[in-house]
Design a protein that fits this description.
mainly beta; 4-stranded antiparallel beta sheet; 11 strands; about 0% helix
């Protein structure tokens, strides 16, 4: 079992930056996939950044970003601290959402989410 706790959300002005963190605990050594997802009111949850630390990736690379955030979002993983980070730059109103951290071979473990509001 893996426990995930997100932090770093808040209110930020358009054009600003934010760093989200996710502290992982428990049986994390099998969590080759970790990622960040977000959900806005009335919209489906979407993946915004995935990172894979194994030798193979179904995405063909170690990190994945959808086109909507590519170049603005950067995911990183600190295995020593069991922490997953997400750097977000050039924030706009479309980025307003609850951001969730996920982990596990099938991204089956989820945190409680952290609110990001751009206004």
């Amino acid at each position: 079992h893996v426990q995930l706790v997100e932090s770093g959300g808040g209110l930020v002005q358009p054009g600003g930056s934010l760093r989200l963190s996710c502290a992982a605990s428990g049986n994390t050594h099998n969590s080759n996939y970790m990622g960040w997802f977000r959900q806005s009111p009335g919209k489906q949850r979407e993946g915004v950044a995935i990172i894979y630390t194994g030798t193979k990736s179904v995405y063909g690379e170690t990190t994945y970003y959808p086109d909507s955030v590519k170049g603005r979002f950067t995911i990183s993983r600190d295995n020593g601290k069991n922490t997953l980070n997400l750097e977000i730059n050039s924030l706009n109103s479309e980025d307003t959402a609850v951001y969730y951290c996920a982990a596990g071979s099938d991204l089956g473990y989820w945190g409680q989410g952290t609110q990001v509001t751009v206004s």
